[in-house]
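User: Batch of two.

Assistant: Item 1 of 2:
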Amino acid sequence: MLNEYASFFVYLLMFAIVTFLFYLGGKRGRKTYIILGVLLLTIFAGIRYTTGTDTATYNKFYDEVSNEPISHSIDRFMSGEMEPFIIIVVRLGSSLGFGSWFMFGIFAFITAYFLYRTAWILDKKHFWVLYGVFLLMVFPNSFNTMRQMAAMSVLSFALAGIIKRHIKDRRVRYTKLILSIIFAITLHYASIALLPVFLIPYITNKIGYRRAFLVFGILAVIIAFLYGPALNFLVESSLLPVKHYETFMDTEGSLLNFNFIICAIIAIIAAFHYRSRKNNNPVNENYLPIITAGAAYAAIGFYSGYLGRLADFFWPFAVMMIWNILNETKEKPLKKIAIMYIIALAYFILAFVIMGTNELFPYNTIIGGVK
């Protein structure tokens, strides 16, 4: 087992290697490097043992499903206890004689691959820059909320595609969109709660990004102050089952709501940056309402940590907005990249090292016959 200092450098080294491979893949036009980078991340996350908040719970789940009759696994799915994808993965892995590393690896692959696809859609030229930032700020969350982060990455890919096609006045590929959404739901049922976000590009197109920004900004404020009382009212009036309420409140909310603070700050900065017509960027005209909607979703985190995690979905778009604003400055390209990585590294140290979010430290693996 590595100590915390060694673990810190292992994470940075792995993320740096993968980012460099993505850079080579983009510069030389060879996807072999990108495939290698995704596979390295898959292995890195797949062979973890106790690293990650929910890892022990998932290990136990893997053992239980592996050793139970298939009828019990079907009951888990039919009752809504667990999503079908993870049940299928566990049953497949156990039938092949694999340990829980197989499950971790599959979900890590989905997360790593669809984050790459999202970065590629957002900025084909500098996708490797965005991906490197994702590794420091987004990917570590998959060591805790594994199913959710896999679903979020799929939904981010789908939404990024819609935005790009809207900007270029192209027809949205609805078959691909629907399949992506269905896949995300099979990964994590909470994906359903994010479906309204897919209407934002259409709303923005109808009423303009400024009005959309105001609408979602007001919604964020309303949720911040009234979500708790509204939830209690629904329970007391029997409109919301107590069981679901207990699930929502299983992880207590906190005033130290990073998702809300960051989404709100980025939205406000971007709103001031684009307040004059001459500074408008058609990409950010779509992203600004989305980030503001992210603040609305994040506001739920003041009451429920469980539901507040939905705001993790908005991270790739927040990163893209910061990158776009930096790109509109007169700084040299290398300095812009350096600033992005300084921001990302500072966040990684604050959130994952100092605050211990997702319990990434120390990093330990199954190597040695532990599992």
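Item 2 of 2:
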Amino acid sequence: MNLCNRLTTLTLTSISLVVGFLPLSSTPAQAQDDVYIDRDCRHVPNSVIQKLSDPPWFHYQNIFYSRKFTANGKPYWLYVARYTDGAAMFCVSQPDFKQARLISTSEISGQFIEKVEQNSNQSSMFIVRVIQGQNTGAPFVDYRLDLSNPDRPVITFVRGGCCVDFD
């Protein structure tokens, strides 16, 4: 047996041993801390996600940003999830996803979001950076999201610039 055949046999044997020890799972892989919502901003328990035959991102969105804030003396949550294409979905609710609703504004809804920042702890003001594309060098626009009245979000242009660097 020549050296090339020996290396091939050894490599295939090694791969089969490694694959044989990999755990088999009938549930989709996900991080323990992932939180999913449906398209109406309602929380979907992980027990439901784990029972799906399709990967969860086909049906539900994974929250990538969430913060508590206070408006009119009441606690609220702002949370942002991504669709499968990377566009964002903004939601507001009372704690524990009660009375959840979509924030539907053309400036930020369905856009590519680089970051969301709360002005200060518990503040109802947020800065949202929208990227005008998904490539390095894409221009951006910053908006102020005012949730002092969560039923009537107000979006204000802050500034535009160039360019977002994804490195």
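The first strand starts at residue 36 and ends at 37.
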